[in-house]
């Protein structure tokens, strides 16, 4: 996950070997642990690391884990589900549109201030660029997505 020329040396500027850093970040991301939980798991294995250090590793290396996992994703499915809800962002109520395929893989997310046809069109246009056009799209009741009879 963490790239470097040597397989076991620490990444530049880090005291711990890459395997320790990768395990700590992976545990945090995969198992929904707290930074203190990861600190404790490492301590049980004889590795003394402060939870703040684990926090910094997670902030630094999460993007590398995401990039490494991207090729392992399923190909976009041919059936999609679209829903819309309201969320509060920075104290403002905004619309959240989300498209998911039949595998549960998130295809597209759009947060916008207005609930209108232009927002829905932008959302679907971006979503269709993610892969082949779906055979079927199921939507929830949304005023900007007209019902078809």
Helix fraction by DSSP (H/I, runs of at least 4): 25-40%
Give the termini distance in whole angstroms.
50 Å
Strand order, biggest sheet? 3-2-1-4
Percent in strands: 15-25%
Topology order in helix (H) and strand (E) letters = HHHEEEHE
Backbone structural class: alpha+beta
Shape: elongated
Task: List the total number of helices.
Answer: 4
Radius of gyration (CA) equals 21 Å
Largest sheet properties: 4 strands, mixed
**Mean pLDDT, all residues:** 79
Count of strand segments: 4
Which parts are unreliable, with pLDDT below 50 for 5 consecutive residues or more?
1-7
Number of domains: 2
List the helices and strands and how they pair.
Layout: H1 18-31, H2 35-44, H3 51-69, E1 79-89, E2 92-101, E3 106-112, H4 117-128, E4 136-139
Parallel strand pairs: 1-4
Antiparallel strand pairs: 1-2, 2-3
């Amino acid at each position: 996950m963490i790239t470097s020329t040597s397989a076991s040396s620490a990444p530049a500027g880090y005291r711990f070997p890459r395997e320790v850093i990768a395990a700590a970040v992976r545990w945090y991301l995969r198992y929904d642990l707290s930074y203190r939980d990861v600190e404790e798991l490492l301590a049980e294995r004889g590795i003394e690391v402060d939870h703040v250090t684990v926090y910094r590793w997670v902030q630094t290396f999460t993007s590398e884990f995401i990039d490494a996992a991207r090729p392992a994703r399923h190909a976009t499915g041919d059936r999609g589900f679209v829903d819309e809800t309201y969320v509060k962002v920075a104290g403002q109520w905004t619309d959240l549109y989300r498209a998911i395929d039949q595998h549960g893989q998130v295809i597209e997310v759009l947060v916008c201030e207005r609930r209108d046809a232009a927002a829905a069109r932008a959302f679907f246009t971006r979503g269709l660029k993610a892969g082949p056009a779906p055979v079927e799209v199921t939507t929830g009741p949304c005023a900007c997505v007209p019902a078809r009879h």
